[in-house]
Amino acid sequence: MQRTARAASPAPEPEPLPVPAAAHDPFPVGSPEPLPAEVAVLLDGVPRQRGPVALSIPLPRTTRPALRLRPWRLLPSPTGTPATFAYTVILALTSLFASYASPGLLHSVYQDSSTDVAHLLRTPVFVLLASALWIAGGLLSPYALAFVLVLTALERRIGGARAILVFLTGHVLATLATEVPVGLAVLVGHLPDTSLHRLDYGISFGVAASIGALSGLLAPWLRWPLLALVGYSLLTDLVAFEDPMTNWGHLISLGIGMGLWPAVRRWYRERGPVAGAVTA
Prior knowledge:
Elements: H1 37-42, H2 82-100, H3 103-113, H4 117-122, H5 124-130, H6 142-158, H7 160-187, H8 204-215, H9 220-240, H10 244-259, H11 261-271
Helix pairs in contact: 2-6, 6-7, 6-8, 7-8, 7-10, 8-10, 9-10
């Protein structure tokens, strides 16, 4: 018998298995536009997804740190507020000298440091600086406590050099604003010549100017009550008429400090907010 050989017919190709719809490319070929971002986010955990997907879920905002009370920051320190600390030490030393010096020596020192008209005409720079080294009333004066608290707070916000500049601006301008009228009044004969030698020294003008400047950096709920309290106290002293030139000088220096608000606010922004500071 003769065998006949038959060519083997090719095996049929297997049909492709259906691919789950969820495994398809999120951006299928030929689609007119990509799927919405929300759909892409939902496909982030599906296998075989190609390419990174940008999340459109906004991240939560970072919360501000909680306000911590640190009362020791109200006082000057050699590292935190070196200018105020050094100035406070000098004022403490001069106050101790005033407590133990003889009355005659103390009066002579006060007279040489006085910013009266006679000394302003002879040695203006020296007396303007020397008069700011004494506390009228000593360490128990309210201006001594105000100096420590206000200058410390001001230096922490705008820096030591600028805080001292604010203090000296009020001290110098208020002194000139009160002594120049005295000199003119003596010149035209309205005051006796003895008015040219009246004692005028202390830090009160500088402190009042610093209070006015610092108030511009405080929140309104603290700024206006502070100014109202200080203004009322100064007006009460003026009405008492015990030392009208000095009382007018306090009000003038407070106004000078308030006039420095644009400058101190700009310095504060340049320096950056102080942790725990109450600002506007």
